[in-house]
Amino acid sequence: MPERKRRFRTGPGTLVAAAFIGPGTVTACTLAGANFGFALIWALVFATISTVILQDMSARLGAGARLGLGEALLKSAPGSLGTAIAAGLILAALAIGNAAYESGNIVGGVLGIEAIAGEGARRALILTIALVAGAILLIGRYKPIERILVALVLLMSGAFLLAAILTRPDPLNLLSGLWPIIPENGLLTTIALIGTTIVPYNLFLHAAAARQRWNDDPASVTEARREAAVSIALGGVVSILILSAAAASLFARGIEVSSARDMALTIEPAFGPAARYLIGAGLLGAGLTSAVTAPMATAYALNELLPPKTTASQTRRFRIISISIVAIGAAIALSGVKAVSLILIAQAANGILLPVIAVFLLYVMNRRSLLGKMANGPMANFAGVIVVLIAALLGARGVLRAIETGLATL
């Protein structure tokens, strides 16, 4: 009898979608729709395709070669100096960068609660979001955490889908946004849309999670790659729904907002309280899922650097590292540092690290002696190089913009 086709199962690709649809993405999509209508949908399509290309490499690395990206970097580094540089890159990309991102994730979840219930005791809400994220991470095992994140992603996706339906975007206007143009004063928004979708730490998260989730037989590797492509594509659809809801509800009426919470409050008179609750729930889900996945990525990658490799020691370190990232993020959020400053730090870190880590990923994926048949072929290399070049150009522009803005605020 012919072998039955495997049903689709969620996995690490869903975690990647949960990670990149964070408060930064929700805010960027909201501002893009409010300020430029549907004109920048193409940027989200490009960013989603680019993310699929890079994350497919991570899926093959983890599921097929049974390696995390951090471990593969160390194995590929030439000599002790190369190993030290690789370890430093991992620490910079994750331990430092994700602590800054984590504060924004926690605050984003708080903004979602405030959109639903109104402003209140923000410090207490910050601690509540941090405690919830910490409680999930204390589980310490991949499968239960994945199930929780899948449920949160479904909640978030459903909320934004219903919000888009309520605002009734014009399908023809939506399709017109597929033509690649950058409207006047829209360059930085374009960079933001792409930069918040292609996230460096997701490359570490995906490889480490894929190694735990999938077997290394050919069927499982194929399933891992398909799951990654489908999940990330659906994540891109959610981003497009957010932009479309903002374009239909705000751009057409000339309403200016500065965040997704503002959109939730502004559109209530026209579309009813359900719109406010849906966008607030979506923003809360985006903040909470990212508040879990950023520490996860850090814990997985740093675990790959530290001996011993026993299951008990890795579980213990996973809990310690991930909870530490949550605690640092909560402390930054409680310190009263302006959100603008946190965004500038995140922009600069992402702009510098994304092309560098993508280059290292390409280098690792061409080590046939290490990866065997999971190594890149010519088409994967071509697509990866194009993504890296564009990421480098956008990263450089984002860093320059962050520096310019920082100097202007002095």
Count of the domains: 1
Rg estimate, integer Å: 20 Å
Shape: globular
Distance between the termini: 72 Å
CATH class: Mainly Alpha
By helix and strand content, what is the structural category?
mainly alpha
The largest pleated sheet is described as:
none
| Overall pLDDT | 82
Write a concise synopsis of the structure shown.
This protein is an all-alpha fold and 410 residues long. It has one domain: Amino acid/polyamine transporter I (Up-down Bundle).
Task: Describe the 3D structure.
The chain is mostly helical. The protein has one domain: Amino acid/polyamine transporter I (Up-down Bundle), CATH 1.20.1740.10. The protein is 80% helix and 0% strand. It has 18 helices and no strands. Helix 7 packs parallel to helix 11. The longest helix is centred in the first third of the chain and has 39 residues. It is globular, with a radius of gyration of 20 Å. The model has no long low-confidence stretch (mean pLDDT 82).
